[in-house]
Amino acid sequence: MYQFTSDIAFSPTVKAIQTRKGSRHGYARMEQAGSWESSITPELREFIALQTSFYMATVNTDGQPYIQHRGGPAGFLRVLDEHTLAFVDYAGNKQFISQGNLSENSKAHLFLMDYAYRQRIKIWGDAKVVEGDDELIAKLMPADYQAKPEQVIIFTVTAWDANCPQHIPVRFDAVKVKETLDARDQRIRELEAELAHLGKH
């Protein structure tokens, strides 16, 4: 379908702008060297397993875009195989915009941002909604997560790319910060106890 996997984003119009603004030569070299990945590598699998949120973009037949946030415990976005991702779509405000868009246009995009490590991953592909499959929901539903499952979204990967960390602010997950501070405080108490013990001798 595409000469290079990056052609999913680098349309002729985009390439013309790249040429005009001086970046086409560099991207042409990237294309000749193999372009973007089209399957889920072990490195991407590991990155996905750590994420607690992502954004999914869809578009309807009129070209109206929509971005929806999805969150859950680490690992809620699952890698099924080297070309397929899936997640349980939890019950929410019942607008069903993403589902409506996907029923008209299966093209979708996932945007994963890791603020702590200043890394972002862009994934292009096609998505579909699977309703009424209790077995699949049970397989994908995170254990002990307090959310009501509505359906499942299956995402087939066409291409993905990793962006540079420029302009990504460093932010840390509150739970992880608390765990680190608690460990530090515990160590301080242990050292204080050791000092007090030594002071008695």
Give the terminus-to-terminus CA distance.
79 Å
The CATH superfamily of the largest domain is known as Electron Transport, Fmn-binding Protein, Chain A
Classify the beta-strand content into a percent band: 25-35%
Number of extended strands:
7
- Spatial sequence of strands, sheet with the most strands: 2-1-5-6-7-4-3
* CATH class group of the largest domain: Mainly Beta
Q: What's the mean pLDDT score?
A: 91
What is the CA-based Rg, rounded?
22 Å
Q: Find the CATH topology of the largest domain.
A: Pnp Oxidase, Chain A
Q: Secondary-structure element sequence? A: HHHEEEEHEEHEH
Do you know the CATH architecture of the largest domain?
Answer: Roll
Total count of helical runs of at least 4 residues: 6
Question: Helix content range of the residues, please?
Answer: 25-40%
* Number of structural domains: 3
Rough outline: globular
Give the low-confidence spans.
Answer: none
Sheet of most strands: 7 strands, antiparallel
Structural class: alpha+beta
Short structural description:
By secondary structure, this protein is an alpha+beta fold. The protein is built from six helices and seven strands, in the order αααββββαββαβα.
